[in-house]
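Give me structure tokens for this 692-residue protein.
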Amino acid sequence: MADYLVIVESPAKAKTIERYLGKKYKVRASLGHLRDLPKSQMGVDTENNYEPKYITIRGKGPILQELKKDAKKVKKIFLAADPDREGEAIAWHLAHQLGVDIESDCRVVFNEITKEAVKASFKNPRPINMDLVDSQQARRILDRLVGYSISPILWKKVKKGLSAGRVQSVALRLIIDRENEINAFVPEEYWSIAGNFTKGKSSFSAEYFGNEKKKVKLTNKEQVDGIIGQLEGDSFEISDVVKRERKRNPAVPFTTSSLQQEAARKLNFRARKTMMVAQQLYEGITIGKEGIVGLITYMRTDSTRIADSAVEETKSFIETMYGKEFLAEEKPVAKTTSKAKSQDAHEAVRPTSVMRPPAAMKAYLTKDQLRLYKLIWERLVASQMAPAVLDTVRVDLLNGDVRFRATGSQVKFEGFMKVYIEGDDDKKEEKDTILPPLEKGEKIKYEEIDPKQHFTQPPPRYTESRLVRTLEESGIGRPSTFAPTLDTIQKRGYVTLDAKRFIPTELGGIVHKAVDEFFPKIIDVEFTAQMEKELDDVEEGNKEWKKVIDDFYKDFEATVEYADAEMEKIEIKDEPAGEDCEKCGLPMVYKLGRYGKFMACSGFPDCRNTKAIMKPIGVTCPTCKEGQVVERRSKTRRIFFGCDQYPECEYVSWDKPIARPCPKCDNTLVEKKSKKGVRIQCTECEYEEDVQ
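Here you go.
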């Protein structure tokens, strides 16, 4: 019989830890929280110092009873939930339910699930950290007060099923503000002039820069024609050559936020998927004879710090694999990337051992696990490598008072770039642009001068990675909240994704307008960031959590009462759809539902006929050859294309088909959207072309 009971959150984690601890330890999983605020009511006594009313979560009773039965048979109970606020709160709730003294050495935490880390943590148990618990309680209760106060008003004044939350309302505001910027944007004309130059057998391009004294912005064709008219002869003189050596430093190891952003850029993972796969890698994977091994450290962190032992192991690996010259000369400075330091007790997200390279793990991991592990592994290795060295050259060419400029760069030493280069939403990866040897005073002929008209573009809509970055930079939310926040605003039908970018829906606009008018503080970025700071102060033991809640709720309660009394009911009128119901003959109308607009019979509730809005795109179905391809939306508001003869024809595609066949194989051509733009590709062969 076991002497000790260890309680963790998940069965996978329990299985891994039990293997490390041996027969004296029985490890069981609570499957997350067993106790929480009730769903059916506020669950917070605002008249009694915000005392929470916790109940056993529906369906968790049997788990609790089994844990109580196991607890009676052992000498001591260890609570080993995850090493963060939420894990500390789970441990605290379990302690109350199982009668464990929270001031006893009952709490064990580990940043990685490896044999050494787990055994070390059990040698150093500690009491439950009530500052962490209070911080989690404060966030939970604050979110409950906001959500359960505003949402009923939205149900009453707008429509049922709506919600507003502390972080989700700010995220929605950012998306809507960006959409308003795009709609208000007025394009401005500008021009560029490219010159194609030759020297011997080499050619290179240069752009118009200005005159001999300063840079000049080109705004119209008349200006461009005037500059081209100033050119004398067919050659330029090189007036200046500047050569420099530039160093490029590696990115620091991953935080939760930067991992979510990079996985979105490079792996096309949604934030929720990134966290789900990372959890699997953290909890443990069966690796041949080694058995179950946790492959990465804990994935909810704001820190880029890594343990000295991991640094030394990584440096040794780099020296062996790539050579001493690829080692960083000094240890990179670790820092927190968020305004908050709430999860800085942990390390960065890194492999538990760099000696398990992705290639060696391929046989044991799923495709998604391998791709994410490879990203985390490469990021750590690169972070300890030497900077890349680039030779750059800038050349100015003069013809009279007209100056062109050419720039080139070449990688002189790969450094960290041999392993990994960080992605960027705004920049393209650097490529070698090699200029021929050029000397000051030299005459260079041009073959062509090519003027082009351009127009400024509006700011881009938010991708998941951009929105996560903006929320983090603004101090809104914390690592564990980003994924569920983005999920919520989509599930509520407030936003939709098109080409991986967020677009607010009509419903989202209505909700935002109502919240903005009556609860402006809730969607104020600075106010929400300040609230996050105060909650972090609770975690650091600098503020009392009930005082933080009280300072907020005094004003908020009055605002709720005012909104309930003064907010006018918003009537979302049905629009005629222009066709009759095929079941009863009454006119069909467009209604606004949780997942956007849909068609319904005006005879509701006597006739309950509904159907999705289908937008023909002028393409015959490539499968049945009889139906028409229509644009539709999934329940998550994502656009897809299908045959209007469904369910008789089951053709479906995420990519938009076009109305001509592939010139090579006669199969279907589709539009493929990516960060680089839109390309036309064949669904069967390798044929592709640029969009004209």
